[in-house]
Amino acid sequence: MSKPYNVLFLCTGNSARSILAEALVTSTGDGRFQGYSAGSFPKGQIHPLALALLKEEDFDTSGMRSKPWDEFAKPGAPKMDFVFTVCDQAAGEVCPVWPGQPVTAHWGIPDPAAVEGSEIEKIKAFRDAFRMLSTRIRLFAALPLASLDRMALTRRAEEIGRVNDDAQ
Predict the structure, then answer these.
(1) Is the dihedral of CA 91, 10, 8, 116 positive or negative?
(2) CATH number of the structural domain 5-167
(3) What pTM, to 2 d.p., does this model score?
(4) Are 35 and 84 within 8 A, CB to CB?
(5) How far apart are CA 44 and CA 67, in angstroms?
(6) For residue 36, which of 95, 76, 82 has the smallest C-alpha distance?
(7) Which residue from 87, 95, 97, 152 lies 20 to 30 Å from 10 (Cα-Cα)?
(8) Catalytic positions, written as ranges
(9) With b meaning 16 or more CB within 10 Å and e meaning fewer, what string describes 143-163?
(10) What pLDDT does 96 receive?
C-alpha cells in the first residue's frame, strides 16, 4: 500500500467539527487516510462533548489538540492532499497557501458548540454533526482517488460538501 492521503479539516475554533472529522477520516478506509485538523482562531482546547462522543464511539483521542492552521503551512509540516473547511466562517477567511496545492472543498456543518439549550440538545447537536461528517467522509473514502484527475476530484469533493444529510 502507498502512503496514506493526508486530509486537513479546518474550522474557526478547532474544538468540535474539525476534531470530529480528523478522527473519522483517520479511522476510515483501512489506513488510506491520515486526518489532521486546525483552526483560524483555535480555542486551545477540544470541546468536552466532542471528546466524550469520540471516546463513546471508541476513537483514540490521545494526541488530539486544538491548534492553529498555520502549523500546516510551515516548512516541515505534512504535505496535505486534501483540505476541507467544515464551517462557513473558515470557508470565507483567507487561508494560508498550502504547499503542494491540495484539493480543497467546503463541507459546511452546523456548529454543535454554538448550540444553546439543555445538555440533551447540545449532545444531539454533536451527534448530528458527527453523523453528517461520517456520511461525507464515507462518500469521500469511496471515491476512486487514484484514478480521478485534480479537476474531477475537486468537483466530487465539492459535491460531497453539498450532500443533504437529512435525506440519508
Answers:
(1) negative
(2) 3.40.50.2300
(3) 0.92
(4) no
(5) 6
(6) 82
(7) 152
(8) 11, 87, 95
(9) eebeeeeeeebeebbeebbee
(10) 66
Distances (CA, A) of 124 to 53, 72, 83: 10, 31, 27
Cell triple for residue 76? 516541515
How many angstroms separate the CA atoms of 34 and 9, rounded? 11
Q: Which stretches in the chain have pLDDT values below 50? A: 167-168
Sign of CA dihedral 61, 62, 67, 73: negative
Pick from 94, 108, 120, 119: which is nearest to 40 by CA? Answer: 94
Q: Shortest CA distance to 46 belongs to which of 62, 34, 57, 35?
A: 62
- Whole-angstrom CA distances from 21 to 27, 87, 135, 141, 156 are 10, 12, 11, 13, 18
R_g over Cα of the chain: 15
